[in-house]
Design a protein that fits this description.
Number of strands: 2
Order of helices and strands: HHHHHEE
Structural class: mainly alpha
Radius of gyration: 17 Å
Shape: globular
Number of helices: 5
Helix content: 40-55%
Length: 123
């Protein structure tokens, strides 16, 4: 038997809806959730202007964008850096060589499917 659940979202709330799916497994605080939501919103804005993910991540974690996000969230430089450190320890933000990137699991897609395969037995 197959059951399909659909949820319609708009451009304003799709990032929040997607992030809500993953936030419980990431053990995020409310402040971290809001921080990631803002990072993702900014990431998608940047993504419209560049060719590659690498370029988008470079701009996302640039001094200019960090300042923009800090001002929007009304947080200090040290709190911003603490949030980055905490999210790195939770695997949300990854450091690859000298670059920071977002874990692909938390970057929303416009369509997401789950498939459960239930096997017989006591496994």
């Amino acid at each position: 038997m197959s059951v399909v659940y659909n949820i319609k979202v708009n451009k304003v709330n799709w990032i929040k809806a997607y992030l809500s799916l993953w936030s419980t497994s990431l053990d995020l605080t409310g402040a971290e959730f809001n921080f990631i939501e803002e990072l993702l919103t900014e990431y998608f804005s940047i993504k419209e202007t560049v060719q590659t993910d690498a370029q988008a991540f470079e701009l996302l974690f640039s001094t200019k964008t960090r300042s923009k996000i800090r001002n929007k969230l009304d947080i200090s430089v040290s709190l911003f850096n603490n949030r980055i450190s905490n999210l790195k320890s939770k695997g949300v933000i990854l450091q690859i060589e000298n670059s920071l990137i977002l874990n692909k699991k938390i970057v929303p897609t416009t369509e997401l499917s789950f498939k459960f395969i239930v096997e017989n037995g006591q496994g």
